[in-house]
Write a structure and sequence with these properties.
The chain has eight helices and nine strands. By secondary structure, the protein is of the alpha/beta class. The chain has one domain: NAD(P)-binding Rossmann-like Domain (Rossmann fold, 3-Layer(aba) Sandwich). The strands form two sheets. A seven-stranded parallel sheet has the order 3-2-1-4-5-6-9, sandwiched between helices. Strands 7-8 form a two-stranded parallel ribbon. Bound molecules: NADP nicotinamide-adenine-dinucleotide phosphate. NADP nicotinamide-adenine-dinucleotide phosphate (NAP) binds next to helix 1.
Length: about 270
Amino acid sequence: MNAENNFMGWENPGSALITGSSSGIGAEFARQLAQQGFNLILVARRKEKLDALSKTLQEKYSNDVEVLVADLSNISDNKQVISRINEIENLDILINNAGFGILDNFLQIERMKHVEMINVHFTSPVMLCHATIPGMVRRKRGVIINTSSIFAINKDSSLIMYTTTKSAVAIFSELLKVKVKGTGIFVQALCPGFTYTEFHDTDAMSGFQRSLYKAEQWMKAEEVVSLSLDAVKSKSVIFIPGEINLVEGKNLRKKKLKKYLNCEWL
Ligand SMILES: NC(=O)c1ccc[n+]([C@@H]2O[C@H](COP(=O)([O-])OP(=O)(O)OC[C@H]3O[C@@H](n4cnc5c(N)ncnc54)[C@H](OP(=O)(O)O)[C@@H]3O)[C@@H](O)[C@H]2O)c1
């Protein structure tokens, strides 16, 4: 695979570790990065889904595609992922993408579910970034994409913990970029709006109706991922895919969005 075939223009693309790659946006990152010649480490809980994706991608592209079953709400499972990270010679890309929503009021949600969300959306990305960055600094190249959400921009109080954790990972990404300046590492906080995935089909999201939102508000995972990869080298850490999300965001929080988009203070 030659350099112009991958989004970074790298000779010899190395490995990419993608959390939440058993479905949706994470699985699509896996497909697009496999096509670009990266070897993959797929992380999520549903082994059968990861195995099926791994088999398809290995057959199609002849890359190494490894499966790592982990529940990232558990610290011990994050430590196991880190043990594997420590063994990988050429981890070029880390995509912290695992996530879930809960459609209920703060007090109605079981207390430990809030802790699980904090761990999956924030603790895990922090732990995995901490483990991955030293190798990237040594090799003078790397890409970190942390999947946040448009909720981090619009600050929707109806989903307090989702908004808070996604905001935390966005701020963490912005400050991380300052810390890794000059090391060859690129950082992005991907902030998608409504995307067709399994996200809204879980038990915890039952009651959510896609049809209540305009069709043009929805994006396909393929589009979100290819726009995200294209934007990795841009100045702004916060990346909002899709014109519709920029417009919606502008209408809701014109001032704040402008501040984020310009990111002059980074
Ligand atoms: N879809 C949207 O409209 C939307 C909008 C903004 C942001 N996002 C964000 O995009 C990311 C990807 O979500 P998606 O839309 O692609 O939804 P999805 O299809 O439901 O994918 C979510 C992924 O996260 C994994 N995951 C969830 N909990 C986990 C845990 N405890 N441990 C390990 N993996 C876990 C799931 O795998 P297993 O179930 O196999 O563990 C799955 O692979 C999430 O962070 C989400 O918050 C989505």
